Amino acid sequence: MARMIRIEDLMFRYRGGDFSLRLPQLTIAAGESLAIVGPSGSGKTTLLNLIAGILEPERGRVIVDDTDVPALDDPARRDFRIGRMGLVFQEFELLEYLSVLDNIVLPYRITGALTLDAGVRERARRLAADVGIDDKLDRFPDQLSQGERQRVAICRAVIVEPPVLLADEPTGNLDPGNKDRVLDILFACARANDSTLVAVTHDQELLPRFDRVVDFTEFLTTEAAA
Amino acid sequence: MNDLLYLVWRYIVFHRWKTTILVLSITLIIYLPVGLNVLVEQSAEQLTARARATPLLVGAKGSPLELALSSLYFDADTPALSRYADVARVRESGLAEPIPLYVRFDVRGQPVIGTTLEYFDFRELRIADGRQIAVLGEAVLGAKAARELGVRAGDEIVSSPENVFDLAGVYPLKMRITGVLEPAYTADDDAVFVDLKTSWIMQGLGHGHQDLDTSEAASAVLSRDDNRIVANASVVQYNEITAENIDSFHFHGDNGGFPITAALAVPHDQKSGVILQGRFGGDDEPSQIIRPVDVVDELLDTVLTIRQFVLAAVVIVGAATLATAILVFMLSLRLRRRERLTLFKIGGSRQAVAGMLMAEIAGVIVASALLATVLTLLTNRFGENLIRVVFL
Lengths: 226, 392
Known about the structure:
The complex is a heterodimer. Chain A has a single domain, classed as P-loop containing nucleotide triphosphate hydrolases (Rossmann fold, 3-Layer(aba) Sandwich), CATH 3.40.50. Chain A has seven helices and ten strands. Chain A has helices at 44-52, 74-84, 100-104, 106-109, 118-130, 146-158, 176-192, and strands at residues 5-13, 20-28, 33-37, 59-64, 67-68, 85-88, 164-168, 196-200, 212-215, 220-223. The longest helix of chain A is centred in the C-terminal third of the chain and has 17 residues, at 176-192. Chain A is globular, with a radius of gyration of 17 Å. The model of chain A is unreliable at 220-226 (pLDDT under 50). Chain B contains eleven helices and 16 strands. Chain B has helices at 2-14, 16-52, 64-72, 85-93, 118-122, 143-149, 196-203, 270-279, 292-335, 337-345, 350-390; strands at residues 56-60, 82-83, 96-107, 110-115, 127-130, 138-141, 156-158, 174-181, 192-195, 206-207, 221-224, 229-231, 250-251, 259-260, 262-267, 287-290. In chain B, the strands form four sheets. In chain B, strands 1, 3, 4, 5, 6, 7, 8, 9, 15 and 16 form a ten-stranded mixed sheet that branches. A two-stranded antiparallel sheet of chain B has the order 2-14. Chain B has a two-stranded antiparallel ribbon with strand order 10-13. The model of chain B has no long low-confidence stretch (mean pLDDT 84). Chains A and B meet through helix 2 and helix 4 of A and helix 1, helix 10 and helix 11 of B.
């Protein structure tokens, strides 16, 4: 079930750095797909990390449904993230020493909050089939193309069926042919799980595919054509 | 926990060569000092065991160490030679049973030991093949000597000349091998044992030649009186002792003045040993008496000091290797910073991620420690044989 995300009076500053992010208000509707654009260093990735509870703001609230994420303590925030957030990174961040299947089920191995069972493995195989990598489950990341690696990363993000999917430049390292394919898969997975999708991107060509675009340059919200 | 260990296992398997090199390096760091210690202990034990089993040695005054090493291990420069009279002196004292040893010649590198049959009983040496020496010109070989020379009972060997142009009359002597001893895993395994008189014959103190009373040798006789026959160099000297010529072998002079390396003295009791030491202990005494165990202990003190230096060197090399291993771990952790961050972002706690990395390091160290333990146990189990085969 998708979650609404509401951000209020958010202020974040890296310790010892000049950069600060101020976001008076941002609301993302449940099931909505939102693209965040803006120049490098404007705080797009920082916002994703704040929503995911990886970073703690100096002040303000990040409310996912009824839960104020920054107000949770560290373990609770982590549990919240494991169960409700799927993360996709620009550099894929797959573990080189794990097979494709092991990479997909990785969230189940690194926390006691989730249990890896036959059902999860079956779901991983189904996901791999959906994104066209079911014949590469025993391979290692360095035996895959860039596009295939990102598909594995997407499978890893959605294996827990997260209500919120956060993607940081998911097509940033892909060639044009793979960009569309990966984005199709990302949207399909979001739809399949009824997830709210928040993606940071530099690619203007992709923006029309999102419900809404937030330009971080001026914190102006523009409605993109759906 | 099992899932984290699975990840650790996958990492180790994926980086198996790096892991193997690390494990071997750390194994050597642990094993080298420990294994060396075990080997030195066992070597020392074997050295002292033979010395402990040899109560007293009587020999010419000089280096006690050379006397002990040449008489126990047949492995030193020939020390100052003693006289056979010392053997008689020990026997006549009634305090100990003497066993003469004459260690001077060799057969292609294997030392020839001139002694008596008592030596075999004293060292508990048993014949594995053939029989004991019975007459002049016969030899019994230690197991390793027989192997090295490629001979067996019934074959013949020839003593090596001391130098090519030996004009003093030390001719090679052909000897019959009558037996080969069971392995004793001591210096006896390397030796060629002959009767003491046979070794004197090798030196030219005894010899056999044509009977000068026969018509064949008549032309060689230069002069003849009641007690003395002088012949020229055409008289045939025998370089092999056979049943036909054995009766012609004889010694000139008093055998009390003939050389020996040492007389191994076996006192009847402790008190007899002490008295015997007193009798040979005078300043004007031409001979010395030593307790081999004291000499070897003194030698081992030096060896142990050297061991300290070797161990110190090993520890320094080990520390350098350990520092390198730590550097490898640190670099590995640094290289895997993004991996740690990813694991944290997708839900792993910092403690779990750190625990995973620590488990990898612990796995390498535990594997190294186990391997080092196995090597040490093997050294402990087979080190003794290794020392016997390689060093003794």
